[in-house]
Amino acid sequence: MLQLKQRGLSGVIFVVSDDHEGRKRAVSELLPGAIWQRCYVHFLRNARDRLPRKGDEDCLTELRWMYERRDVAEARRNLAVWLERWGDRYRKLCHWVEENIEETFNFYFLPRAHDKHMKSTNMLERLNEEIRRRTAIVRVFPNEASCLRLVRALAAEIDEEWLEGARYLNMELLREQRRVQMAEAEDSEAAA
Fold it and tell me: Domain tally for the chain?
């Protein structure tokens, strides 16, 4: 991340990753003001590891539902109900969820239309899968430069798709939300 910052990365407001202490620390130190979101898919996999082997799958299904709520307040209310329902039966899991789930709720502070795409690392994982698929066809590259050319061409192709095709994320929604938030902050400062 430091190299990206040195090469001019700026304006980052949201970072999604798995639970990695070094990455979390780098985001807070190198990208001040950026919100870090723990990938909810990785979180649910980690939760599955804490559920006994013969545990009730409904427990995890209901936990997954937290990410389909309209806003963070509704998700927190549903979490309280979930903890009440499963707390006695799966004490360790519920304790771990209660301690860690807030890191997975940060996507709720983005425009609603961005929820689906920004609550997980799926977008990045799809890109990596496409790179794997395309490089597997070639199997053996004559040198590192030829592999890099293929990956760059693929990245350019995907970038063009995102720019000219159907919008993956409508950034105007985010810009408008930020304008409103800044205006509200200015109003509250003026009132104080």
Answer: 2
